[in-house]
Each structure stands twice: as C-alpha cells, then as structure tokens.
Amino acid sequence: MAGVECGGGDWPFSAEEAYADSSALLAEIGWAAGFVDDGCAGELLPPLDPHPATPAGSMEGAGASSSSTDDGATREAADADGRPAAATEAASKTAPAPAPGKTMKKQKRARQPRFAFMTKTEIDHLEDGYRWRKYGQKAVKNSPFPRSYYRCTNNKCTVKKRVERSSEDPSVVITTYEGQHCHHTVTFPRGAGAATLASQMAFSAHHHHLMYNDLPALHSPTTQNPLFSVPAMSSSLLQPLHCNRQELQVASYTTQASSISSPGSVPAVDKGLLDDMVPPAMRHG
DNA sequence: CGCGTTTGACCGGCGC
DNA sequence: GCGCCGGTCAAACGCG
C-alpha cells in the first residue's frame, strides 16, 4: 500500500489524463524543449524535431517506450500491490520458486507521473540526490545508444528513471523520471561534485519553473517551434516546461561535467531534483 | 560481505 | 495470429 501512496497516489489527475504513450510525451518534448547553451560555447542548440516522423530521430528512439509504458506500469503492479519493487525483488529472491518473476500476475496500475529532462551533458547518469540501482539496459530501436533503467534504492520508493542518449545529438541525455519519491534525498556517497550538480539542477528548476509557467507559447502546441531563446546564463540553465496535460513536466538544461562547481556554490537543496520539480501540492510527504 | 552493474531471457502490449 | 519491441527479472559478476 505504501507503494501506491508514495508512488504517486496523490497525483491530481488520473491515468487517463496521462500521456497515452511516451512517444507523444517525447514528441511534446520535441516541440517544447529547446536548448540553451551552457554559456561556454555560446551556441544555441536547435530544438529537436517535434515530429516523431524522423526515422532515426532521437524522439523516436527516446519515445520508443511508447506501447510499453502500460506494460511497464503493469509490471509494476506488484509494487502497487503494496510492495516496493525492491522488496518484491528481494522477496522473490528469498523464495526460490520456479521463475518467481516470470509468473507475476498481471494487474493494471495507474501510470506514474513522469518528468523528462533533456540534458546536454557528458554524464550519462546524472546525480540527483537520490540513489539509484540499475536494473536493466536495453538497446532502443533507431538509436545507437542503449537505454538504462534505474530504480530508487529506497525499498519504500517506487520511483524509476530511464536514461538514454539522444540519437540525434549524443551530447544530449534524456532522463525520464517516473513516480514520486516518498523520502528525502540520501547523503551523497558518490561525491560532492555530482551532488552539487544535482543541486544546481534543482535550484535552477525551481527558479525557472515559475518563469516558464507564464509563457503562453509553451502551452500551445501550435506555436511554431518555440525555441526558448533564453540568453545564456549559467552552466546549469534549466528549462522546465509545463505542458497542458500536466502529466509531464519537461525540462532541458545544459551542463558540462567540467563545469560542476564546488559544493556551496549553490544554495543547499536537501531534496532531490524531482522533489524540486514537483509542485508542493503534488508531494506526498 | 554488501551493494551495484551487467546481461540474456522472458513477458506482455501493440501493430500489422 | 504473429512478430516486434519496450520493460523487467534475476543470476552472475565486479568492486570497494
């Protein structure tokens, strides 16, 4: 039961309102998300093709989760059943039943809220203040880069994320969070630098969030390619977007591994990126 | 020894 | 009905 609650049970809209598939989700990212340079190159990157018609486009590859989104949610039914995924896995391990995971009973579950970030970074797996355990990696069609699947290591938390590189621009990492953390961030065991990056992301997200909420252009899919010509500001400029359908908040930001500053350069953020992106009303705890 | 990653197999949805 | 494909599982492995 805890899984349901902490997994997004408080999400203010139903699964029906969620994106039917993530190709639409990513398509939305495509038309909505632009890039801002990192202030170093002084180059404004073009937004991705809004139309998934691009055969080998990153949107296609990135959005290829499409039909399986439901599937994924379905497979997580066990989590929603009251056990977090990690617990489920642990349980299945302790119980040497023949093919424990293979006989999982199917159960529909409401889709978790998702947040996608497009990151121009050399780092594949961005630290966001939470600890993640990789549970899978898959080659994605039309993309030379594999997609990695991570799950929050907190056994009460069902949050997952997918990380993949854009096939169009290998320097762009698409990170998709699914679910909401029901706990605070852990300490950063993997280095303060990465943690600082996460802090910067969260900090920037928090600031730009409000700013972009008021941009009508962002809310109109008919708007011609709303490239967010925000002047280069910092190495961690973030562009969260509010899509009309709310289920998705998309942000793209630019950073560089080498630009990670020392701890303390950014106001302390004791919550992770996701927490920062989630409106307080949507938060659970 | 504990924890995280790798990797091949499996499952189920969806399109044709 | 079949094949494709994304998502997940879980054993094996690696690392600190």
From TrEMBL:
Keywords: DNA-binding, Nucleus, Transcription, Transcription regulation. Residues 56-71, 83-102 have a biased composition (Low complexity). One of its GO terms (molecular function) is DNA-binding transcription factor activity. Gene3D superfamilies: WRKY domain. Residues 103-112 have a biased composition (Basic residues). Its main location: nucleus. Residues 255-264 have a biased composition (Polar residues). Residues 41-114, 255-285 are annotated as: Disordered. GO terms for biological process: regulation of DNA-templated transcription. Pfam families: WRKY. Coiled coil: none annotated. GO terms for cellular component: nucleus. It is found in: Nucleus. Residues 72-82 have a biased composition (Basic and acidic residues). Residues 121-186 form the WRKY domain. This is WRKY domain-containing protein. The lineage of its organism: Eukaryota, Viridiplantae, Streptophyta, Embryophyta, Tracheophyta. The gene is LOC123045105.
